Amino acid sequence: MASTRRRERKDGSAIYRVYRLQGGRGGDWQTGTFAEEDAADEFKELVNQWPPGRVRGKGFVEEVTSPGDTLLVTWAHRHVDRLTGIDERTRRHYMRDIDNHFSIIRHT
Q1: Domain match, 36 and 14 both
Q2: What is the superkingdom listed in this entry's lineage (predicted)?
Q3: What is the model's pLDDT at position 107?
Q4: What is the pTM of this model?
Q5: How far, in Å, CA of 9 to CA of 1, rounded?
Q6: Distance CA 32, CA 56 (A)
């Protein structure tokens, strides 16, 4: 959950800082600084949703794709399909494990 704090500068102008604790109690504080309160509030709402594509210090970036790039889940399914000498039950279990464990990995 993000919060916004208003801070006064020495020259009397105000800045708005959005704070978010990354990773729970043991995590690090992450901040974003804005000159306008509306921009800080809008950013706070986005951080509370933590949309995909948000990179600290860079904002929203598109994922870079390379020609011939294959997702890990797709590659692993193809690999299991090509295995020989295993029962169909084993194949189903491998596919289930791929779906349960590899699908949460994001391409970076």
Answers
A1: yes
A2: Bacteria
A3: 65
A4: 0.44
A5: 26
A6: 9
